[in-house]
Design a protein that fits this description.
Helix 4 runs parallel beside helix 6, helix 7 runs antiparallel to helix 8 and helix 11 crosses helix 12. The chain is an all-alpha fold. The protein has 2 domains: 187 residues, Leucine-rich Repeat Variant; 134 residues. The protein contains 18 helices and no strands. Helix content is 72%, strand content 0%.
Amino acid sequence: MSSSIPPQNEFSQGASDADNRYARMRTSSDELLPPVEPPSAGFIIQLFVIPAVIVAAVVGIWFVIETLARRGEQDPAKIVAALRSNNQARFQQAKELADMLRLPQRYPELKVSHELSGQIAAYVNEMVEAGRPEDAEVTMRIFLATALGEFQVADGLPALLNAALHDPQRDVRRRAINAIAVLAGSMAALKPPQPLVDEQLIEALLTLADDQDELVRSETTFAIGVVAEASAAQSSEADPRLVEKLVVLADDPYTDARFNAAAALARLGHPAAPAAVAEMFDVDSLAASVAGEKALTPDVTEESLAKQRAFKRNMILSSALKSTNRLRETPALPAEAFAPLEEAMEGFLKSLEKLQKEGPVPDELIDEAERTLTRVKARAAGK
């Protein structure tokens, strides 16, 4: 007779006993736990709100300290006092000032400080008048002239003109001229633009363009180009005296002065620009330009000097290509004006093997030259 109860083995009976024991243990453990209750408002405040308030307070204190520190760093009186000191710390202050002026997001008030710019300008005038030849004094004048060019206010322009015209050291004069160009570019880039259109500035640049020192003439040519372009943007036409001087400088005995004039004339879309820019592709002219790069210290090796010269040559070629493309997009220039450029670029590409021996020409520069030549040929054909 069959039973209605299924057969059980020893394992099934053991499993049943184990389940019963586990159930009894679970019941007794649950009875020992405290009842679950929702957290109180005080507990939530302790857990979340109070730490948040502490963090906010710490951040606020840090912000106040940082703001006060920045104000201290930007105190014109303290900065100028440090620059006027007679110890080595003034060079560190000059470096820090230059660094701060290059960080307008962090030091927005510094770059537009009329007070600081005016005080540094007064100090530069004093130093130029003294004209001390010691290396430390010359270096400080170079630092401060550079700093005046980094401002976005024109208070330092008279001091820069004074240094460019009258400082007894050529390197100071060159740096002051470069600072004028930087300042002119910065003022023209403001919104709204505030181009440096100043009669004293124009007269000074025209005087410096006739300087006997070729490096001074080259720096001045670059500055004239920047100022002329800024004046053209304001009145739709550059000052004719500056443009005329650029045309003259495009035939200057010094190669770099000619190259700077060519690039400036191209930015202005001048009819004399295509022939002037064409020379920037000439192998012999490029060689003459880079030959001026000399070892400044005895530890400069021939290898590093060769790299320096190749870098300068490639920068000139890059500028020539940009100038060529700018001219190509100038509708006022007739098609026949591009014949010198076409011939010069073809000669440059044929001379690549020779140029590569003197230093590598980047592949991307060669590719751009080939593309630009194709466009120049189309422009010369009236297309």
